[in-house]
Every structure is written in C-alpha cells, then in structure tokens.
Write a structure and sequence with these properties.
The protein is mostly helical. It is built from 15 helices and no strands. It has one domain.
C-alpha cells in the first residue's frame, strides 16, 4: 500500500508534470512567472490582499504535493515497521545521512515535506529544479547549486549527527525500542487514518497562517529590484537571510531569479537566493519545531544563510 501511494502519487504530482515541463524549459527558456512579484519590479506593499493573493497562488502550486506529503508521512508511521526505518535511518553515522539524502531525490518536494537529510535533499538536490535551472538560467547556475548543494545536504546533516550527545542518543534508542515493542490497537488502516487526521489538523492551519504572513511581508523581505542591487556584501547577506525566511513552491526559485536578473539585479544576490530559497523557510522551521531541538534548527538556519552568502560571492566573482 505504501509503495503504491508513493509511486502513483509521485508520478501524478511530480514526475510526469516535471517531465513535460522540461520540454517547456528547453524550448522557451522559462517555466512561468515569478510567484514573488509576477512581472513587476517589486513585490506589492504589505496588505491583507497581498497576503491572500500570495497564499492563493502558493496554494494552487503546492496543494497536491501537500496532500501527498500528508498521506506519505502518515503512511510511514502506520504502514512501515519502525525497525525498518531504524535500520535504514536510525544510526548516528554518515550511512544514515547518505540514505536519507538519496531517499529524498525521487520526492522533489518543497520544504513542507521534511526531516533533515530528507528535508534538505528534497529541495536543494531536486533533479527537476536542477534541469529547469540549466535551461532557464544557464548550466553554470546548476553547477553552482550542485557544488554547494551536495556539501549542504550531506555535510550539515552529518554535522548535526555529531551534535547529538551520548545521553540524547541513548534516550532516542530507548524510545525507538519502546515503539518497536508496543502493540498498537486497531488495524494498520485505522492507525493510518488517525495519524493522517492528527497531522492534517496540526500542520495545515499553521502552514496557512505563516504563508499568509510571508505573502503580506514580501515587500519588506524583497525591496525594489533593479540595477541598484549590486554585488556588495550587504546585499548578498540581506538576500541570503530573506531567501532563508521566505517560502516558495518546488522550483519557484528559477522564475524568481530569472525575473530579478532580467530587471538588472546583480549575480551575487541571485546566487544567495539560489542556495537559500528552496531548503529552509519559516513554515518548515515551525512545523519541525516538535521534531528537532531549537539548537539543531538554529544551526541549520545559520548554516543555510552562510551557504547562501558563499553562493552569492561565487556568483558575483564568476557570473
């Protein structure tokens, strides 16, 4: 049942639509308008209408992926034995990080579907986004994303593993052993429906509120775009922070960066957005607040901003 949901769902929501969009990207060198500001030179001023417009546009882009993410997330908990998950992902070594990163590649999800290596790999190493990027922005941008994305996904996750204390590791193993030994009541299907309902009620309202707030705050995070935004360190750092906070649908960074470059913005801030828009956002951090400690989430956020600044500096120097 889990494999059926995963294969059919990913084919319908991700693989087949992206396969068709590759030909659009190759022939038109574009995959749509910037969800951030459309064809304008700046995002709309903060208002209820700006919040609603962005939430509606974002919702149309990701609702199918969100439904699939909830189905798969609940199915993992209800339909797959915990010991299988522990065997593949439960060790405190690079092998588990590698498995998580590789498992993320077929998902091609945005940051609403997450868990560290899986979270970052889904977004930064999204194969469809990398191909779109090459056809729309140029293959040098794909090379930059890969050059920094691989160490981001696997390096950060391994570093987080090293942050786990022996006491935390022992507590995690004890909790996992208890979960494996527990004989949960009901059938697998009834457990799945219960978990799905709880996840939906907890995550969806939180996600909608945060997307509305970020949609209203677009003009504060991304000021007027034009030739005056150059390769200075201040601009690169500012766009790295803004890109880390903002939320976009899968591959949304490609038309955003294309639109900004066409308006005369320098390559440095674009390089910062290339590395920070996809992996981390305020909604993803909020939804993972119950799964990871504030220390881990703070470390990942700061590290992503740092990768964005490095990406911006490289883009400024080379592109």
């Amino acid at each position: 049942m889990f494999l059926l949901i995963a294969v059919v769902g990913l084919f319908y929501v991700k693989w087949f639509p992206y396969y068709n969009r590759v030909f659009v990207a190759a022939s038109q060198h574009a995959i749509g308008k910037s969800i951030l500001m459309g064809t304008a030179a700046s995002a709309p001023q903060p208002s209820w209408q700006a919040a609603l417009d962005y939430a509606m546009a974002y919702g149309r882009a990701i609702w199918q992926a969100m439904v699939l993410g909830l189905l798969l997330g609940s199915a993992v908990q209800a339909l797959i034995p915990p010991r299988w998950v522990a065997r593949a992902l439960g060790r405190n070594d690079f092998g588990s990080v590698l498995n998580g990163g590789l498992m993320s590649l077929p998902g091609m999800m945005c940051t609403c579907c997450a868990a560290l290596a899986f979270w970052l790999g889904n977004t930064v190493l999204n194969l469809a986004a990398l191909v779109f990027m090459g056809f729309v922005l140029g293959w040098q941008w794909t090379g930059l994303r890969l050059a920094l994305g691989v160490p981001m996904v696997f390096g950060l996750d391994y570093a987080v593993n090293r942050m786990v204390t022996p006491a935390q590791a022992a507590a995690s193993r004890a909790a996992l052993a208890k979960l494996i030994e527990e004989d949960e009541p009901g059938t697998a299907f009834s457990r799945w429906i219960g978990i799905l309902g709880r996840m939906t009620l907890r995550l969806v309202p939180e996600y909608v509120v945060l997307v509305l707030l970020l949609g209203a705050a677009r003009a504060w995070l991304f000021p007027h775009i034009g030739p005056d935004i150059g390769n200075g360190m201040l601009w690169i750092a500012a766009f790295a922070v803004a890109g880390t906070l903002f939320v976009i649908p899968t591959a949304g960074e490609v038309p955003i960066i294309q639109a900004m470059l066409s308006l005369g913005m320098a390559a440095g801030p674009a390089g910062a957005l290339l590395m920070t828009l996809p992996p981390v956002s305020v909604p993803s951090l909020a939804m993972l607040g119950r799964s990871f400690s504030w220390r881990v989430l703070a470390f990942v956020t700061i590290a992503v901003i740092a990768f964005g600044i490095v990406g911006g500096l490289i883009a400024a120097a080379l592109f």
